[in-house]
Specification:
By secondary structure, the chain is mainly alpha-helical. It has a single domain, classed as MetI-like fold. The protein is built from 15 helices and no strands. Helix 8 packs across helix 11 and helix 13 packs antiparallel against helix 14. The protein is flat, with a radius of gyration of 24 Å.
Length: about 325
């Protein structure tokens, strides 16, 4: 591998690690500023001051924040996310099953949205300025303008309440067959795909159009190359980096949008677990879920950067 390429890749990974450390500090500080006393919530209003002080000491909440942060960060480095205050069990065990559900939802959304977005993004770039391009672009702008919670609420009202075609809750119906599972996942996947696909279509279209303006593509066109050959043979290979970046940025939106979708559809994922943890002031569980989301986002962005570096012909040669 080219030493320059290796240096750039290692630099991107180093930036991701430093960013994760900074994010961990922000997450810890943000959870510390949440209103309410977790000890008082756990023991109830009738708890005596002695009981509150004893539990606070047992949970190490009487220590300075900097010491608790150092201990939590040391645990993270060893893969220990701590223990849940409310559930009295390891945070990793609580997150394990829920994370699988969220990954399943994200995978189904990606499998549905990525092919559709790439197809529409590339075709609108090829036929830019046409009626098809204007129609797709108008729909994309309209979809981006609508927040996902409104899309989810409208989907529940139309397909669950009025028409009765789909269950209002993602696991509220029978899941014994493939058809039942598809019905259960239909509304969460479609809701997430709306904004994810719209963003990806716009970014893919822009990346392909920019590549089509390159001199070598114009030269291929002047030599008589067909439009399909010009795009597939000359433009797309050099647009892989920007397209992968577009996919990574769009899919990283799942990590934020899934919180709203899981809450509305009562989907048993990690985002729903995090929302429930906020209501009980379960700080280790909130921190663990937040770090999982941050790690997922940084992983996607870092992979996109590495692919963009490897796809750059100037660096490869």
């Amino acid at each position: 591998m080219n030493p320059q390429v290796l240096t750039l890749i290692l630099g991107r990974i180093g930036v991701a690690v430093v960013t994760l450390l900074i994010v961990s500090l922000i997450v810890f500080a943000a959870t510390e500023m949440l209103p309410g006393d977790v000890v008082q919530i756990l023991l109830g209003q009738a708890a005596t001051p002695e009981a509150v002080a004893g539990l606070r000491e047992a949970m190490n909440l009487d220590q300075p924040a900097i010491m608790r942060f150092a201990g939590w960060l040391g645990g993270l480095a060893q893969g220990d996310l701590g223990h849940s205050y409310a559930n009295r069990m390891a945070v990793a065990e609580l997150i394990g099953g829920r994370l699988a559900n969220t990954m399943k939802l994200a995978a189904l959304t990606a499998a549905f949205s990525v092919p559709v977005a790439l197809l529409l993004g590339i075709t609108t770039a090829i036929w830019r300025g046409s009626l098809f391009d204007r129609a797709v672009s108008s729909i994309v702008v309209a979809v981006i303008s609508v927040p996902e919670f409104l899309v989810a609420t409208a989907a529940v009202l139309v397909f669950a309440v009025w028409l009765g075609w789909l269950p209002a809750l993602s696991f509220g119906g029978d899941t014994s067959s493939i058809w039942a599972v598809l019905r259960a996942y239909a509304m969460p996947v479609i809701t997430l795909s709306f904004v994810v696909s719209a963003q990806m279509i716009r970014m893919t279209r822009a990346a392909v159009i920019e590549t089509l303006k390159a001199p070598y593509v114009e030269m291929a066109f002047l030599k008589g190359a067909s439009r399909s050959r010009m795009v597939l043979r000359h433009a797309l290979p050099n647009a892989i980096g920007p397209i992968v970046n577009a996919m990574a940025l769009s899919l990283s939106y799942l990590l934020g949008g899934v919180i709203i979708v899981e809450t509305i559809f009562n989907y048993p994922g990690i985002a729903k677990l995090m929302v429930d943890a906020v209501s009980t002031r379960d700080l280790p569980l909130i921190q663990g879920c937040a770090m999982i989301f941050c790690l997922g986002y940084l992983t996607l962005i870092t992979i996109a950067d590495v692919v963009a570096i490897l796809a750059n012909p100037r660096l490869r040669h």
